[in-house]
Each structure stands twice: as structure tokens, then as C-alpha cells.
Amino acid sequence: MAVTTVYSFLRLAAFFVFALNVSFSTAVKHEGFKTCDQSGFCKRNRAFADAVASSSTTSPYRISPESATFANGQFRATVLKTIADGLTVHLPLNVTFLKSGLARVTLDEERRRTGDIELRHGSKARKERYNESPAWALVGGLDIDFSAQLGEHGNSDVTAIRYGDNQRNEAFIRHDPFSIYFQRDGETQVTFNQRGFLNIEHWRPKVEVEVEEGVEKPVTAEDESTWWEESFGGNTDTKPKGPESVALDVSFPGYEHVFGIPEHTGPLSLRETRGGSQDAFTDPYRMYNSDVFEYELNSPMTLYGSIPFMQAHRKGSSVGILWLNAAETWVDITKKKGTKSKVDTDTHWISESGILDVFVFLGPRPEDLTKALGDLTGQTQLPQTFSIGYHQCRWNYMSDEEVKEVDAKFDRHGIPYDVIWLDLEYTDDRKYFTVDSDKFHNPAAMHAQLDERHRKLVTLIDPHIKNTANYPVVDQLKEKDLTIKNKDGVTYEGWCWPGSSHWIDCFDPKARAWWKTLFKPDFFKFSTYNTYIWNDMNEPSVFNGPETTMPKDNLHHGDWEHRDVHNINGMTFVNATYHALLDRKPGKPIRPFVLTRSFYAGSQRLGAMWTGDNLAEWGHLEASLPMILSLNIAGMPSSGADVGGFFGTPSSELLTRWFQAGAFYPFFRAHAHIDTRRREPYVAGPPYTGIMAQAIRLRYQLLPVWYTAYHEASVDNSPILRPQYYVHPEDEAGFSMDDQFYVGSTGLLSKPVTKEGAATVDVYFADDEIYYDYFDYTIYSKKGFRTVDAPLDKIPLFARGGHIIPRKDRPRRSSHLMQWDPITLVIFLGKSGDAEGTLYVDDGETFDYQSGAQIFSKFVFDGVSSTLTSQDIAPKGSLTDSYRKTMAPVRVEKVIIIGAPAHWADKKHISAEQGKEKMQPKLQFHPASGNKAAWAVVRDPKVSIAKEWKIRFA
Ligand SMILES: *[C@@H]1O[C@H](CO)[C@@H](O)[C@H](O)[C@H]1NC(C)=O
Ligand SMILES: *[C@@H]1O[C@H](CO)[C@@H](O)[C@H](O)[C@H]1NC(C)=O
């Protein structure tokens, strides 16, 4: 939720309305957020880049030759920055080569590192450049490649180092001026400081110039106006450390497309931000986690979360970088004609503070990048099964009676759902961990009804804690001194939903430990073990703060300035909640579910995110797809947008189309603003309700597909939704497509309708493989665009030949009730007559899968022998056998073969076997008709999913 209309304001203190200068139009308040020009360090670095580009001066950075060493997979040296008067600044450089084939470059500043500086205003802040981002964002992948070795280079000014798989990668470190070129297979893929934009703003004392009457200020070469203090929107940043930005140009020669750096609303293939083509932006892409009210489409403006990972792609190669910095960051992108009529993409990364810390990925396949990023920042949490079902949310269900009523209506209309949500208003006066007992008279009865139907409750808990009397949570927070502090080291006070508030500082281990105590059911009395948590407003949103967030000179645990940790802050809060849920129940731990709005690289380990406060407009439905795809390829696959749009009231058509699209979001939740008309899927009536119900049922039918895709993401962080370029990395025509996508590795291709009144969509098929309409088996077998019918009741969904997908076809009220349901396998035969697929199953709740309590099967249909086999590919553990026993009754009840060979028409029975059991199930053949494929059904082959089996069609 964000700050919004008059209605909600009336309920806040009157002076607060005044302070916010609220707008009533539905448009983002540009004046509330900085442009590059208004952000001192961004402006300075753009100006620096322009000066370098327009002059013949070379970069003032060089490696001091005597300092350079290479040993044990690491190149170390001191980079000297020449400043005025022949003085130099010392910048320790590490270039570390990792076993994963990645290279890591860090550049620090000697004087700040050793604390040999003075802060202004008597600040208590740490003097070093912030270097703890890795501690929060990274979990591994840092093993050093000790076999990296010096290579040959004719120029003694260049150190060459070969590394990675078969030493196919090579880094060329030029000493003067300092730059690095990264090659793979002898070809340059990524360059650092090729354009000379490297800029480490070194520490310097402020020279106070006394302004005398009639005497002119001394003229300095640099514009100092934003070095020492900056004001924006009535807030002043005291900047006790002075200017300290880090910036670097990174080029991708021969790469026309770059993707990533979520969260933004523009296209998946990132646009130019300076000069360039007509649709170029004028500002760089910005990453500064913010509560952006009524955000606009097609914009490089910052949003709620950031992942500073960028991938560059061309035919045959994907490479990328992770810019590990948690401060406000801007990225300029320009493209130019390179050699051999190829396009080069040049980028310019600018962060306000911290050390320079960059990982270089040389691919070459898109999945090599996602895997390496997962090894560094962690894998996607394997969620509980319920959380991949459908979620019903609204600001707000106002009472326990209302929750029960909504719950009952879903059942009355035969619409499955798993989770109902309570936004802010369930609390007593916006005090988290309390409940408004005037509205919730009998929570126990409400919980009992939900439990009975195996549904869950999610409630909102935010990081701002109401500053009020008689509220034990705020008393403890202050007593234990666990708050974020202002620049003077005193508990920071600002405004958010509850009015005056304080913020918990989850960088502090003591704060995380205390946070756990609040979730125990004897403290959070409204909750049960079936209550899960939504962390909103964790950028953090501060209504009266600069750019609706915290002052940058606020202080965190360890005396780090908020400026240094801003983009990571929201993740540490979610992490505290995750661990609180993990520990709340005695006995066997249950997987937590936490939804967050703010995120950073690493947040995928902790739960799901959603794209914040969107609008009930067709453009927002359309924009949700590239946004979610961008998150998926940047390591945060568990994502979704508010179905229906948060602000405003969608038409029934828009809502219906949104449910059809939302059924393909990894995280599938409808939500609505408090001022909007009710819009649960049963409200619209015929034909809409029926169509929305069908979309939700399709989601439930495909839960085995979604859970298997989540499993893959939990192993190597692979995207759950995959853009065209990711699945077809050689097909240039698809590189910029972001309105259709594949689900995991299943070959299911979805193209949601996002245009009002559309009755058709143009689907792109990237190759000559057979694609089948998922519902009626119409065949599409030619590469290129095809216009397909998409009336309101039709979801354009296709299956690429060569895949086998698992389904559960019995309609149920919730996912829990499907747990023992039999599986239907659908085989979409490819041109070769073969097909493959996987199914992952576990208890969907505990961590037993880590001890082998899982089923992971690979299905292979071999066209030559006409045999379908189920192979056990699960890792085994102590719980494997007992788990398999409990799962023995779960069987395959049906096998559907699409594209079945015509000669099967004569078959009535086929043979199946599992262990010693031999069966002769019936085969029913349906001949091809028109352009619809032939298909065959095997009914009840009597094979359990718990063990390997075989079905012979020959
Ligand atoms: C550079 O490497 C050295 C030795 O491995 C290490 O002590 C130092 O912390 C590294 N610097 C940075 C900024 O990571
Ligand atoms: C999460 O919390 C755990 C336990 O307190 C801690 O070890 C870890 O560093 C935290 N990670 C993040 C990202 O906050």
C-alpha cells in the first residue's frame, strides 16, 4: 500500500495531510523523486563522463607497477588516482578469479579504509566505505580458482590472467591508464573503464572559504555545490563523509541487448538513457528502493526493490555483471554501431557510496548466468504448496465475519483458493501484533473455519512501530535500543501508517532475536501457526522523509549510514520475519511464507515479492509481464503483480484478462485499494465469474508444473517464467520479446491477452518444432508469428512438442485437498516423436525433503520403441523410504499422448509394469481432425508415482 487518496488521509492526523501535499490525480509525483540532475553524485558523474568523452585527457587512474602481485588466484595492486598538485590517492585493487569462472573486482580507498579521515558535524558514522553488502547478499560461490595463471601479452603494461573452465576466460589488466578487458575464447565480452568513466570520489577535507565583501570565491575545476550538503523536498542531507561516489563504465561489445537491473516498468530489453534512439529515456535507470505512489509505466524511475544484476545477450553468448552495492545507484545505457555491423552496448554505473565490488559473468549460456548468480546470492526458497495456489487479498477485510463470508463465497461458487489476507486495518490502531477486537470479536471461530478447509491467513506486519504509550512492542524496542537512529545517534522518529513511528534495525542481531519473540502465539495472540506474514513498506516508506524514505544520514547498527545500506535494509527485515516464523513453532520446522515489497539480490531465499501499488489499467496489466520476466532472469523468480490493479476499479473484462494472466504469475494474488469496489472473482457475475474461475482452476490443475518449476528454482535459481531469449538464445527475432513466456522447463508457452477488446493475439513460435494449442491440440508447426483466436474465455496457451507435463485434474477447494490426488501425464510429442518432462513432489510443508523425503521423476517417451518410462532422479536420504511408503497410493491415473501415431488406432490394450506388477491398461485413440492433432488416452495404468515404471505402446 502507498500513501493515497483523501479517504485514507482523513484518517490520519490533519497536519500530516498538510505535510504531504497530496495530489488527487492518478499520476506519479515526479517532483517527489529525484532526477539524476537533482541527485548530486549522479549529476557529477554524468558531467565527469561528458568531460572525459569530449576531451583527450586520459583516465587519472593507473596501477602502481611495484604494487602489482599475482598469486593464488588473486591479482592485487594499488591503483593510484592522480589529483591536483601531483598528489595521488591510493586505492587497493583486488581482481579475484573464482572456481565458478567468475571474476570479482574490488576497489577500496586506503584513507577511508584505515580511518585516516575526519567526518563533519561530529558525526558518529563509520569512516570506511561500506563493505558489508556481501555479508547480506551472498551465501557462497566464492571459492577461488587457484589454477588461474598468468597469460601472455606483448605489452608489459598489461597483465593477462587465464582462468575458468579450461582457462577459456582471460582478463587483461591494463596498468596505465587502468582498465580491464574480459575475454572468452579469445573474444572481448566485457570491458571496465574502456571509456575512462571510472571515478572514485576520494575523501577530502572541506575547505571553508571565508567570503569577504568584494572578494571573489576561488575558482576550482570541480563543481563542489553538491559535495557537502544536499537538500531535496525540504529535507537536508548533512553528508558528514563528503562526496564518496563510485562509478565505472562497463561495455559489452557486440551485444545489442541488455536485461535485468529490476525493478522498473520499461521493456525487458533495456532502453538507452542518453541520446540515442527516439524511444530513449533521458534519465539513467535508478535503483533506490522507494515507495513510489501511483508509479508510471515505461520509466527508468526507481521502484520498491533493486537487483543490480545485468545480463547482456547476443546470438551465441550471454554475459553479465553483478554490481554489489547497496547505496543509491544509477545506470546509464547507450548503444552504438560497433565493428562488423554489430551493436555495442555501453553502460555507466554510478553509486553514491561504498566500495566498488563487481562480479563478471562470462556465460556463455543464459542458464550459466542464472546458476552462477544463484550460487552467489542463494537459491529461491522452496515455498509451501499453499503459497503457489491462489491468494485473495483486499485492503481490507474488516472483520472476522467478513473473512468467513468471503471464504464461504469461494466455496459456494466453486472457486479454489488457498490464502486470505488481512491488510493494515485488522490491527488495533495500527499497532502491529495487536488486533482490533471491535472488528474481530471471535478470531478463534474465523481461524477454525479456515483450518477446516485447509486455508491459511496472511497478516500485515510492517517495520514501523507506532510511537505511543501503553504499547509493549514500542516500549521494548526502545528499552532494548534496537531502533534505527538519526544522525545524532538518537532513536529516529518519522511518520508512517500509525503516525509517529520508530523503525526496527534488523542489521542488529539483537533486533532479529527480539523480533522472534513477538511472533510466538502467546504474544501475537491474534495469530495461529497457520498465520503467515506480509512485510510491506520496508523500503522503508517514511511519509515525511526525503523521497518518502529515511534520511541518508540516519545510522544503523555498526554505525553505518543509512545511505550505505539503503537497498539492503528491506531484505534484512524480511529475513528477521523469516527466521521468526521458522522458530515460532516447537518441534518440526515449517517453511515460512513472507511476502515483501522491498528486495535486493538474495531476497529470493526468503520468500515472494510483488510489484507494489499498480493501477487497474490495461497498461499496468501489460507492464506486469516484462516486470516479472526481468525479476525472473535477475534471480527473484517468486514474483507477481496485484491481479486487478491496486488503485482504481477494473472493468469486468480487464479483471477477467488479469486473472488469466495472473494464473501465470509465479505468485498469484488479487488485491485492491480500500476505496475501490469489491471485486472478488465471484462478484462480476456471468460470464466473467465463470471465466475467472476457469483461470484459477487451470492454475490448480497445473500446480504440479508450478511446484516442479519452483523446485528447479530452489536448486539453481533458474527462472520460473522464462523469456523468449532465454529459451531460444539463438533466435534473434525473439530477443526483445517480453509479452510471451515459458513456464519453467515445461515447454508451456503463455501469451496473455493484455489489450482491451482483443479477440486474437499474435503468438510467436521460435522454431519449426510442433506447438500445440494446450486446450484443443490445434497444431502450429511453422516458425514465425501466427494470429490465434483469443475470445474472452480463451487463454492463449501452447505446448511445445517434446515435453511431458504432470497435472492434477480433479477440481478441489484448496491445494491441501489435492495432496493425495492422482496425476495425469500429458505428453506432447515433438517432431522427432520423443518427449521428456519431470515431476517433483514432497510434503509441501516441512524441510524433510532435504533428508530425501521427495519424489523427483524424469519421464521419457522414446518414439522408436514407443515406450514411456518414469525414472527416479531424486537424491536419497534417511527419510526417502518412509516417505515413498506414504506416497505409494498416489498413482498416475491417466496418460494423454498428443500427436499419437495413426497406427495406434488399432490398439485396444497396451502393457504397463511397475516392479513385478504387470498391467494391461486400455488405450483409446482419437484420430486427427482438421488441423487438430490425434491423441490417445491410457486410463488407469495402475502405477504409483513413488517408484519407477514403464508403459509400452508398441
Ligand atoms: C582484497 O584481498 C585481500 C586479501 O585476499 C583481503 O584481505 C581484502 O579484504 C580484499 N579487499 C576487499 C575490498 O575485498
Ligand atoms: C538473516 O538472519 C540470520 C539469523 O539471524 C543471519 O545469520 C543472517 O545474516 C541474516 N541475513 C540477512 C540477509 O539479513
From TrEMBL:
GO molecular function: alpha-1,4-glucosidase activity; carbohydrate binding
Entry EC no(s): 3.2.1.20
DUF5110 domain ranges (all copies): 822-881
Domain Glycoside hydrolase family 31 TIM barrel: 381-709
Domain Glycoside hydrolase family 31 N-terminal: 92-332
Compartment(s) where it occurs, according to its Swiss-Prot or TrEMBL record: Endoplasmic reticulum
Cellular component terms (Gene Ontology): glucosidase II complex
Listed name of the protein: alpha-glucosidase
